Amino acid sequence: MGTFGGYTGGMHIPDEKKDEFAGQVAKILNYGGMMQFEKISMYGHDMALLKPIELYPGGKVYFHFNYFEDDVWETAGFDAADGYFHSEKIGGREFCDVVTAVYFLYEAWDEEPGFAEINGDIIDDCCYIGWINHLLGTRFSMKKRFRIWDNAEAYALGRAEDYEEPTAGDVMQFIPDGMRYAAGGAEFSDLMYIIHGTESLSEDVVEPGTYPADVYGCKKALEVFFETTQSEDAVRQVLELVRKNRHERKKSESAALTEVGKFSCMLPARVIVYLMAELKKQSFWKLWKEVHETVYHDEIMKEYASQRLKEERKRLFEAPVPPVRTSEFLRQDGYFAFFDTPEELKGRPDYYISDDDRLYWWDGTDEVVISRELDEWLRELALQHKQILKNMAQESGTADEFFKEFLMLLVEIDQYYKRIYPFQSMFYEFIQNSDKAEYRAAVKLLKKIADENRKEGKIIEKAKYSWDITSQNVIHNAERLKLKRYLSIMANRKLREQYFEF
């Protein structure tokens, strides 16, 4: 068992758009913290180096670790040449959120019905598209979710032989959370009639000129036809009717069927089929699967909704989802987020991801905004770095000595604080510059930070359960975060230069 993500559609991306799409996928994975590892083994120790997602044109990428979650899941991957993304178990935190965002990107691109889902449940949360719009500068809306009949039909027909028929809850999954007030109209009504039946319709309830009134009238016409046509092929005759063109449906040897044909000129074929299925106690979706590709589409429906209402619905459907910042999108507050927080941490604020945890992605824009508190800490570290430089003016050492000292320190930090990995680019940059005092001083400062925070950082030992259900306050304790943040600023050369001047 576990949590699995997926996409119900065909993932069809036009060939001429695959490069653009692949670039968007790569950015989602990168800013979402998806990582690969390079494993090195030296001096009797193994160590992992973080490799942020890089995707070359037409290439493939695989990953199984999320930097913000600090956890591994089953390998997921993307093939840029085919435009195909796949995943296995994805957990329930940041890894899951980012993978689901990729599936939502397919939904935004795909012209055919298709939906992001988790464990078979279609996700109705707009925040995924909101984050995509923020990150990519796009203006995607949720309008595809309001092609209500097309969506429900694709979903139901794909399940017609192997699963129970769709429920009202299944239909509501298609409609974005917070936008259900905008759902309505004939398509939504038809689905509710298919699911719940039309027993609620009667002459004293329906108002003339409304869609329910016309559906009720068609039902009464079908009842008359079945009462006057006792032959076993009455159902066959109705199914033949919905395959005919408009002119042919107006005329029939049976006057009762002609009356049904009149309603067919203003109602979709599905209405006649679901009313017949109800009256004959048959499965609509099984009948519809047999005939849906051959039914008429030449009906001329009445204007049941006012022009003002239609325009308002269109405005709501097509409005771009407001941008959602990365830190807000990745925020974790699920059931296990703070499960069994130790007494030692009671009274401290609960941990939620902030831009301070995203220093590696700082680029001078407002994508990452450093807090006042972190800015002060970094400035203090910069002063300490300068003091260390001054104190080691007369020190010397070989490149091998520096490398061994650096490697062993990183191994020790990882073993004590758990899952603290340096970025690959930073690691090799430091090794290549082992003769420069600034880099040597930065390693000494790293050791100082690690030593100063050992006592409080020991709380990581409370991570006695699976990492994914351990309290966020434990795995992201303040002392451990200081080391992650320091290593990330060391990996971001532009930001490092701003504070540490090297």
Walk me through the topology.
Blueprint: E1 5-7, H1 18-31, E2 34-42, E3 45-52, E4 60-66, E5 71-79, E6 84-86, H2 94-109, E7 116-118, E8 121-122, H3 127-136, H4 148-157, H5 168-174, H6 185-196, H7 211-228, H8 234-241, H9 246-249, H10 255-264, H11 269-279, H12 284-291, H13 307-318, H14 326-329, H15 372-391, H16 399-417, H17 424-432, H18 437-452, H19 454-457, H20 472-475, H21 478-491, H22 493-500
Antiparallel strand pairs: 1-7, 2-3, 2-4, 4-5, 5-6, 7-8
Helix pairs in contact: 1-2, 2-3, 7-10, 7-11, 11-12, 15-18, 16-18, 18-21
- Describe the biggest sheet? 5 strands, antiparallel
Distance between the first and last residues' Cα: 49 Å
Radius of gyration: 31 Å
List the total number of helices.
22
Beta-strand residue percentage: 5-15%
- Average of per-residue pLDDT values: 93
Uncertain segments: none
Strand tally is 8
What sequence of helices (H) and strands (E) makes up the elements? EHEEEEEHEEHHHHHHHHHHHHHHHHHHHH
Query: How much helix, percentage-wise, in residues?
Result: 40-55%
- Give the strand order, joined by hyphens, for the main sheet: 3-2-4-5-6
Structural class: alpha+beta
Outline = elongated
